[in-house]
Amino acid sequence: MKVLLRSSLWAQLVCLSLWPVMLRGQSTLGESLALCNTGREACEQSRTVRTPLSETGAGDVGHNSSKSSGLSEGLVVCNNGWEACELSKGDVHVSDHQRNVSNCRNGWESCDRSKLTPAETIALAVADHRHNLSNCENGFGSCDHSSLTGTEAHEIALAERRRNLSDCKDGIGSCDRLTLTLLEANEVRIATHQRNLSDCNDGAASCDPSKLSRAEASEAIASEHRRNFSNCSDGWGDCDRSKLSPIQARNVSASDHQRNLSACREGLETCDYSKLTALEAGALAKAEHQRNYTACLKGRGYCDYSRLTHAETGTIRDENSRSVGIEHQ
């Protein structure tokens, strides 16, 4: 009785020890088969895929082991990448066929239309027609006008005319002025003139002053003066001080002085102390002295004891002594 019990327990232990190997074998086969079906380069190239179970020499263990062995026999060498991966099982043939359908839908050269079913051929023709119609409507990609219906060809002609008119007005894209009507040509002329006027007012390099009227040229010059004054006042951009009026020059000088004073107060490197008035320099020196004293007293920030007065040094020494006495208590 004890011998039978021990034998039974031993058999259960063997089964339990083989179970992870069986699962791992099924997982490896499933992953390898999926890689080949989807055309992945990782498809077990240059070798036949074998299950870990067969390598252990454990033999056939139940129905799951038989199924794994069948998959292993069906998984063959991938010689030259995913396109050369050939498996003998039905699932692989379905995968190859589906890949071909996908290649045809994407318009790839690897598409073999002779392998499509009648239903797939019709669906592909419908999809190709829709794709071509979309290209014609949007002006993107290649458009085959010969495959359009009469109604579609008329609608596309109108869309192309509107798109050409828009390109001509905006000065972008491919503008064919020869196809414009007299009314459209006049609209384009007005839009082109207005765009040039805007460029001149904004100081754009594409401005052509020779195409402006006398009033427009005066407006463009006034815009340039305003832009120059703004740049000089802000301290950035192109500033030509020779073009400033006397009043503008005084305002720009005041702005420069205020900007420098702010930089000195904030301790910025752009500060030019030589441009400060005596009153401003005195106020900044007083503020800096107070900052230095506070830093030395609190023990925070940059402190220069050599710039402290005798009284300030004594106050700091007394404060430090009181702090030490409190710590000893």
| Arithmetic mean pLDDT | 79
* Global structural class: mainly alpha
Subunit arrangement of the protein: single chain
Number of strands: 0
Taken from the alpha-carbon principal axes, the silhouette is: elongated
Radius of gyration: 43 Å
Which ranges are low-confidence, i.e. pLDDT below 50, for 5 or more consecutive residues? 1-10, 19-30, 33-90
The profile of the biggest β sheet is: none
Distance between the termini: 84 Å
Order of helices and strands: HHHHHHHHHHH
Number of helices: 11
Structural descriptors:
65% helix, elongated, 11 helices, 329 residues, disordered N terminus
Description of the molecule:
The chain is mainly α and 329 residues long. The protein has 11 helices and no strands. The two termini are 84 Å apart.
Offer a quick outline of the entry.
The protein has 329 residues and is mostly helical. The protein has eleven helices and no strands.
Helix and strand topology:
Elements: H1 2-37, H2 52-56, H3 62-74, H4 90-105, H5 118-138, H6 150-170, H7 182-202, H8 214-234, H9 246-265, H10 278-298, H11 310-328
Helix pairs in contact: 1-3, 5-6, 6-7, 7-8, 8-9
